[in-house]
Amino acid sequence: MAKKKYTASDIEVLEGLEPVRRRPGMYIGGTGKSGLHHLAREILDNSIDEAMNGHASEISITLHKSGQCITVEDNGRGIPVDKHPKFKKPAMEIILTTLHAGGKFSEQNYASAGGLHGVGASVVNALCEKFEAVVWRDGYEWRQEYSIGKPKSAVKKGKKTRKHGTSITFQPDPEIFKSVDFDTATLAQMIEEKAFLNKGLKLHYEDEAQKKKETYCYDDGIQSYLKSLLAESKLKPVADETFYLEKDEGIKTEAAFCWTEATQEKTLSYVNGIHTKEGGTHADGFRGGLVKALRNHINVHNLLPRGVKLTSDDIREGLTVVLSVNVPGSVSQLQFQGQTKDKLNNPEVTAPLESIGRSFENYLNKNPKLASAIVERVVLASKARAAARAASQGVSRKVGVSHRLNLPGKLADCSSTRPDKCELFIVEGDSAGGSAKQGRDRKTQAVLPLRGKVLNAISAPQSKVRENKELSDLVSALGCGFGDGMNLKKLRYGKVVILTDADADGMHIASLLMAYFFRFMRPLIESGNLYLGLSPLYRIRLGSGSSEELHWVFSEEEKEEILKKKAKKKKVHITRFKGLGEMNPKTLWETTLDPKNRKLLKIQIDDFDEASDMLSKLLGKDASSRYDLIQENAHRLELDV
Asked: Could you tell me if 288 and 316 lie in one domain?
């Protein structure tokens, strides 16, 4: 069949808001719970931008009774409604229906803003089945409704009013999102976070279904945020002291921080009200400045005990930081990784933030007792880290080694402590296990014999699978857990090889094991760690003496082909192996275990849905589908006696 020619007619041009509906993940990060709530964040951020620039003092957020519809209202200036001189449409309609249209591309309308790409509101509009904008401006109320990004009518001029501001009501499209039910706790957390970051701003939240109303307003901003985080984590600051730094020289910065007894560092960073989950240049600069401030104070005052070497990790251990940075457009245009703005990329922000962090040295010099308490905390962290390193040197680094005492007794483990070099062979029965244990390379090859046919994991209930002794032994040997609790990083062997006899029973056992791995340990297959080992069915000797040829044969077809090509005028001796247990250890090594000669098939699945359907037919409780499958393939079946 000739391939279709790739021509200009194959090129698609997505117009308007169609790119958003085709690839929503590019704009909101996904269509799950996080993406759904990102819609609310985008609309709320627009109102926050009004407040940050001094045009709004209150914002109201309402989750309506259905739990699927939200209204965000502010008392800002209101979206412009006059006609755009170029496009001859009301500005409100252009902003809400066009990508990269907005008033934040220059600093004339917004000195600083979190929404800089001009896509936020229009993206939300594109992904909602219902969207309504109401604007109070120029002495009148203005209203327009939309559906999936398209206006349902023209902008309507309503009654006279002295009110000013914007109200956006939106209901997400169930064709886009997995669920359109908003979580009230997630919304409340988002709103409280915005209140912490904007001193004195009132944010009212109403949940109509639960009949709850709450107002969030914090006069000391992120200092309250830090105290809230400490209370939530049940942590106390070192010397019961928290710190606050503030500076407004081009880039406005607020930082609330402290050291605690926790072993982890925690930094929550924000830029222009946007939470940068992965930090960025602002967070790196500030933390780096703090490290330099403390290190310099220690060196100047000779506070480091002899033999102690400090690292940046020691200094930052237990550090909790809330950092809020406001970068005006006149200073720099913000650069983020992706539309969801998880990480700030502006390199010019690093130096000013580092300078602010380093200014903490002045505070340390003025408060020697407090500085001493922090230095003591840092030195303890360094000593603990050094002790942990020393202890780890005498411990085997093999993943899962801590489980050795719980390993099944019949497992013959290998001596290597490097999982990437280790292999586990799962064999059937003690007889095969005995030959494999004697013939293996003890350094890198482990053997686990299983008794008879394992449980059918496709048709058996999960509770029964968990209680099964053979499968429990297998999970213990692998060391990485199973089901939802599986962690591949703890896998004790780089290769897991199913090695069964080359007969019908062996194939059945292999299929049962593969079914178990498919249902309960699928990451093992996805990562390419599962293999099927082929054992020879025949040994064929051709000729005798010095001219003898030896062939290991893995199928009937291969046997017939060798006999046809090479058996003429030669003495032929054929040995059929009834199972691995009948092979002597040397033969098993040469044919099945030796990496130079063996044949391993990596288990790979291209379509997991199709594989699941096939396993259900083969091993499921419904015998009728299995009967149909046998009837369809009866012409391919052979009798193995």
From this structure: yes
The amino acid at 601: L
Q: What secondary structure does DSSP assign to 141-180, as a single string?
A: EEEEEEETTEESSPPEEEEE-S--EEEEEEEE-TTTSS--
Of 505, 558, 582, 594, which residue is the catalytic one?
A: 505
pLDDT tens-digit map of 40-88: 999 999 999 899 888 999 999 999 999 999 999 999 999 999 988 787 8
DSSP characters over 90-126: BHHHHHHHSTT-SS-SSTTT-SS-S--SS-HHHHHHH
Instruction: Identify whether 503 is a catalytic site residue.
Output: yes
Domain identity same for 509 and 378: no
Cβ-Cβ contacts under 8 Å for 149 (sequence gap 6 or more)? 16, 17, 20, 21, 97, 122, 125, 126, 127, 131
Catalytic residue among 73, 132, 173, 428: 428
Range from 85-94, 303-312, 536-545, 629-638 that averages highest in pLDDT: 303-312
Does residue 579 lie within any of the structural domains? no
Of the residues 45, 361, 423, 501, only one is catalytic, namely: 501
Predicted pLDDT of residue 213 = 96
Q: Say what the pTM is.
A: 0.58
Number of C-beta neighbours around residue 618 at 10 A: 15
Q: What's the CATH number where 257 sits?
A: 3.30.230.10
Phi, psi values for residue 330, rounded to 5°: -70, -20
- Whether residue 428 lies in the annotated active site: yes
Average pLDDT over residues 479-505: 87
Percent of all residues in the chain with a pLDDT value above 90, rounded to a whole number: 49
